[in-house]
Amino acid sequence: MCYDLIAKTNRKEEIQMSLTNPILCLFEITDPNLIVTGISKERCSTNQRIHVVHATLSYQLLKCPHCGHKSLIKNGTHMSHLRLGTLSGGRYEMHLKRQRYQCKDCSKTCGAKTKLVNRNETFTHNIKHQVIVLARDMLTSKEIAKLCGISPSSVQRILNANIHLAYRVKHLPENLCFDEFRSCNHWMPFNCCDAVSHRRIVTLKDRLSKDIIDYFEARFSVQERAQVQSVTIDMNAEYGSFIHRLFPNAATIIDRFHIIQLAGRALDNERTQTIRTIQDKHSRIYHILKSQWRLFHLDEIKVNDSKAVYLRGINEYMTQQNAIDLALDAFPRFRSVYQTYQGILSAIHQKDANAFQSLLTNYQPTSNQMDITINTFIKNGSALLNSCRYPFSNGPIEGLNRKIKALKLNCFGFRNIDNFFIRISLIHE
């Protein structure tokens, strides 16, 4: 009879262990002292269905953690309600019975511990990991909370507790990119990244010169800052005023895209003024300048001069070069602006610093929109020519800013800039 009872007990333990291992593996729980005793479904006060895993935690504790004596006895159990990671978008909990112990010498009590959760917390490491992974996918806090079965405020608390903004990077790269982006509450934060590896270096809350100077001077030594070889910026004049102070050996580079953009804007302004002088709004020249404005921004090499195509707006078959020549022949002033734009475009595309320098030196003002652009280029002479001498551009940091704008759009904006910066650090890891 005694042997039958022992056999039944062993069989129950084997069945129990066979059920325990797969269930714990689903939630990535590796604690060997946890034993699953059952699974049930319940409903909370909000009528939400909860999947409950019932388990016990017990092991042999030899010494009292308070006095160190080997005089512990079992003293009941304590029920803990732990939040597990989700498997199918629902809410999963574990009702864990923890073994309690009492010391005969000091009369103090203690309980069984597990690495599944931190002390005095209910969220397990598994659900925290799921929240961080979903936050990297640019989901809103409400969507993450719905997927994990927790509240949006709990999502933000988990992110604030587990994501910490670095004080500084270990090594300052040799080539940097500077730019800014629009944040919450009309802030314009400053962003900096590595021009080669595209790794984010720092994001500051504003783009004020004093704050940028204070950051780099306080966190990096003069020797570290002297190793920077180049800094790529846009046409923002404030950045160029302190780059040499922070990085004495760095060459300032103006991004090539912004150079072409500024020249193209001058071309469009002159084209618009030319259109206003045309009295006959039905003429071919008017329709060419009005509807075929993209032709004037094309590089001369890419303009088709052999095959006639149908040009909408003009409603005629002609080559692209023929349409351009008709407009340029009618307005010599617009021709000079167009030729200057093509010279800038060619020098930038071929990265010919000598040709760019020659164009700026030999330019003759004709009281048009390009005069202001050329004067701006001359003021930024060395930084402008460096765009042809160095292979770096602001493309990497523009890509990072695009991801930040996508995050802001997906989350319908942020009211707290600190929470915004935490989410930014996640998508840039």
From TrEMBL:
<feature type="domain" description="Transposase IS204/IS1001/IS1096/IS1165 zinc-finger">
    <location>
        <begin position="63"/>
        <end position="106"/>
    </location>
</feature>
<dbReference type="InterPro" id="IPR032877">
    <property type="entry name" value="Transposase_HTH"/>
</dbReference>
<feature type="domain" description="Transposase IS204/IS1001/IS1096/IS1165 helix-turn-helix">
    <location>
        <begin position="114"/>
        <end position="160"/>
    </location>
</feature>
<dbReference type="InterPro" id="IPR047951">
    <property type="entry name" value="Transpos_ISL3"/>
</dbReference>
<dbReference type="InterPro" id="IPR029261">
    <property type="entry name" value="Transposase_Znf"/>
</dbReference>
<dbReference type="InterPro" id="IPR002560">
    <property type="entry name" value="Transposase_DDE"/>
</dbReference>
<dbReference type="Pfam" id="PF14690">
    <property type="entry name" value="Zn_ribbon_ISL3"/>
</dbReference>
<feature type="domain" description="Transposase IS204/IS1001/IS1096/IS1165 DDE">
    <location>
        <begin position="176"/>
        <end position="424"/>
    </location>
</feature>
<protein>
    <submittedName>
        <fullName>Mobile element protein</fullName>
    </submittedName>
</protein>
<dbReference type="Pfam" id="PF01610">
    <property type="entry name" value="DDE_Tnp_ISL3"/>
</dbReference>
<dbReference type="Pfam" id="PF13542">
    <property type="entry name" value="HTH_Tnp_ISL3"/>
</dbReference>
